[in-house]
User: What shape does this take?
Amino acid sequence: MKLASSLNRLGTETAFEVLAKAKKLEAQGKKIIHLEIGEPDFETPDHIKEAAKKALDDNFTHYVPSPGLMDVREVIAEHQSNVHGKDISPENVVFTPGAKPIMFFSIMALIEPGDEVIYPNPGFPIYESMIRYVGGNPIPMELKEEKGFNADVDLIEKSITDKTKLIIINSPNNPCGSVMDSEDIKRVADLAYKNNIVILTDEVYKDLYFEGSHYSVYDFDDMEKQTIILDGFSKSYAMTGWRLGYGIFPDELVEPISRLVTNSVSCTSAFSQKAAVAAIQGPQDSVKMMLEEFKARSKIVVDGFNDIKGVSCIKPKGAFYAFPNIKETGFTSQQLSDALLNEGVAVLPGTSFGKFGEGYLRISFANSRENLKEALSIIKNFLD
Ligand SMILES: Cc1ncc(COP(=O)(O)O)c(C=O)c1O
Assistant: This one.
């Protein structure tokens, strides 16, 4: 079979591959501590599950309009209006199965061969994968450890050319746990505005700040006309398997994105959308509990790595990831993550998030404190 050559440009998300390898080892009887996959180790809160069960009983089991159920889009619009201090119309909300398709569809809708897209590296791997897939030119914005893995706005400014169509930012960031401060956010918004560049702001971790609070390029005057907000339920409400996400789009993108939804998945599951209402309007204590737990675990992880010879780890400020520097160990990221999997700890090489991830590991602390401590002791023993 001759496959389309475009597939050679399509990357992947290594977390799923490492998870599969780890599961295989587990099937052979090996104990593995999972620090590779980016999903909360908590259950979806009961009131959200109850809302989905009721929606099933009420027969929300059919196709719905591609951008989503209007009453649910209204709830999202109200929620996002509160987050951003702007009046967002439900017409600008488009639901997708998970937040990931927002990247896929936005990049497909905007990027032509040769167009340049500035994106964070290390960063969520699907950005680069999709830019390449559509024939765009990915321009990495290196997140440097000495800058706290924050976007270097001077670098963004230097990278802008007349071919730049899109800038992608992600705060709090996967894989580094860094967050952009208000000053940097404003500078990026100004640059995009001045140069008429669209911004895709990935805010899927917006409820998970250990310090500081959420700022968005969307909040600045007129930026709603050239900003796409990516958000969803996977991380804040432990709903990764529900496949429930959405975008807030500028007016002229709503119809094309909805058409992409029609062409690909038709619509997002109706009973999942109904559950979204319970997530947004119901009690938020589970989000707070999860955040406090991640914060406590981040300290265990950072202290643990800083206690290992050849390893150093800066404090994440959000999400649930740490990105320890392993350059002094003499291993490449891939070598060390392979070796640790053999020792019974699944982690991701920093290079899963782009070339600037070399010399780092990505640790998801979506695992119990006991397991994190055990994993750290295995890593310490191995490296010592
Ligand atoms: C930065 C970032 N954006 C988006 C997503 C996609 O989330 P979802 O599971 O809702 O598709 C993830 C998931 O890991 C992520 O880390």
About this structure: Residues 38, 98-100, 124, 170, 174, 202, 204, 232, 234, 240, 245 surround pyridoxal-5'-phosphate (CB under 6 Å). The two ends are 49 Å apart (CA to CA). Residues 50-281 form a domain with the Aspartate Aminotransferase; domain 2 fold (CATH 3.40.640.10).
